């Protein structure tokens, strides 16, 4: 009877984990969140002014692709890209990167599914309690390490009419997916609500296409 109860408890715990995993995957598959920090002293006479994108050093295919994503998102600023010999008023610089770190998350410890678990057989401490004349198992919550990616895009706009002074700086950070996957959304995020308030920090959520 005791072994059967432990087995049923293990199945119940695994079912909860499965449901939680599906909910996480569903959330990740439908939306993407970015934390955006913006500083600006945007000039009032900039509507229709010309800009040029100044990519990071190294004219790689990756840099070209990310430049195109920023170019597609910058239209909401009212700026126009300089062509040919046109002298731009604004230089648009950008930096990007991805880091991986380890964080700890909580999950249910399943003594049946985890076999002997990290503490050996019997190391769990959920316990059995009376309930309606029967017994049930209370799963234990344990901390487990997970790898978390942090994708970052920073866009800086300098005004050549003010000796190259910074007039806009926005950084978007997301922990979803890979850098290549999220870059189109980060490019949108750094210009979301442009120019925004100076020193503003916001969380922005996008529906994934």
Automatic annotation (TrEMBL):
Domain of life: Bacteria
Pfam family membership, one: DUF4136
DUF4136 domain ranges (all copies): 36-196
Gene3D superfamilies: 3.30.160.670
Protein name: Uncharacterized protein DUF4136
Species of provenance: Pusillimonas noertemannii
């Amino acid at each position: 009877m005791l072994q059967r109860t432990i087995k049923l408890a293990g199945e119940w715990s695994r079912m909860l984990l499965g449901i939680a995993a599906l909910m996480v995957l569903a959330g990740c598959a439908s939306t993407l969140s970015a934390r955006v920090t913006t500083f600006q002293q945007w000039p009032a006479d900039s509507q229709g002014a010309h800009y040029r994108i100044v990519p990071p050093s190294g004219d790689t295919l990756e840099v070209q692709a990310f430049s195109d994503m920023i170019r597609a998102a910058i239209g909401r600023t009212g700026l126009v890209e300089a062509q040919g010999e046109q002298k731009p008023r604004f230089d648009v610089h950008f930096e990007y990167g991805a880091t991986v770190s380890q964080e700890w998350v909580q999950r249910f410890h399943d003594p049946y599914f985890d076999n002997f678990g990290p503490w050996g057989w019997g190391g769990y401490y959920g316990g059995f309690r009376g309930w309606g004349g029967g017994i049930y198992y209370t799963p234990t919550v344990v901390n487990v390490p997970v790898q978390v990616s942090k994708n970052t895009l920073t866009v800086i706009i300098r005004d050549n009419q003010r000796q190259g002074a910074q007039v806009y700086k926005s950084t978007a950070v997301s922990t979803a997916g890979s850098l290549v996957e999220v870059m189109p959304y980060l490019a949108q995020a750094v210009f979301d609500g442009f120019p925004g308030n100076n020193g503003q920090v916001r969380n922005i959520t996008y529906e994934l296409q």
